[in-house]
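Annex B. Sample input.
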Amino acid sequence: MYGDPDRLPNRAPATMPDPGGATTAQEFVCRLRAFKAWSGNPSLRELERRTGLPRSTLSGDMSPQRSRLPPLARVLALATAFGAPTEELTRWRAAWQRIQVRQQSVEPPAPTPLAASPLDVAATTGDSSQIKSPVTKGDTLVVTLILAGAGTGPITVRDTAGNRYRAIRAETNDGTRLTVFTLFDAMPPDSPDRITSSWPSP
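Annex B, continued. Sample output.
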């Protein structure tokens, strides 16, 4: 059985927490926990269902004792699970990147981790996404598709390694479809810089 140390007993903030004021990893995680409370304080079991991530991983990412940033892909998956609109995901990404750069500038190089670091995939409005860095076994990928004029029906994401991408967010606004896919524990594609997406015609 998993404990749930992240069930917050204190009162939830009245407004959606803004990560922009965080200057350290600890402050960033504090705001992530506040976002969880603001969203109704879902249990780890419910977050596991929404994100596809293990409860133990989610608990560690939001632990008040955490001294380093959680991987960006998991932060975006959590923010999505908490109901962040598109502009809020952009704010969480920007805050994470700013703190990460600051950490790297003051900390000595870390030893090679046992698990590969997560990668982020450039957003695209075409049929092919370019990955910003090579994929190695075990990586986490996030694919954001913004499609203007796409028809209704399923959107698929594929690569030459046969990885299975899971849609964790889908919304339509004024004819524009936004879909966010995640892939955990990736196998390296044969063409490492491309992921192919397809969607129905209008």
